[in-house]
Amino acid sequence: MRGEETEAWRFFRRDVLPFAAMFAVECTTVGSSTVYKAATLRGLNFYVFIFYTYFISTLILLPLSIIFGRSRRLPSVKSPLFFKILLLGLVGISFMAVLAGCKGIEYSSPTVSSAIGNLTPAFTFTLAVIFRMEQVRVRSSATQAKIIGAIISISGALVVVLYKGPTVFAAASVAPTISLHRHLTSSESSWIIGGLLIALQHFFASVWYILQTRIMEMFPEEITVVFLYNLCVTVISAPVCLLGESNFTSWILKPDISLAAIMYSGVFVSVFSGLTHTWGLHLKGPVYISLFRPLSIVIVVAMGAIFLGDALHLGSVIGSVILCIGFYTLIWGKAREDTAKTVAGSEHYTPLLLTHIVEDEANCH
Question: Rounded to whole angstroms, how far apart are CA atoms 114 and 154?
Answer without folding.
Answer: 14
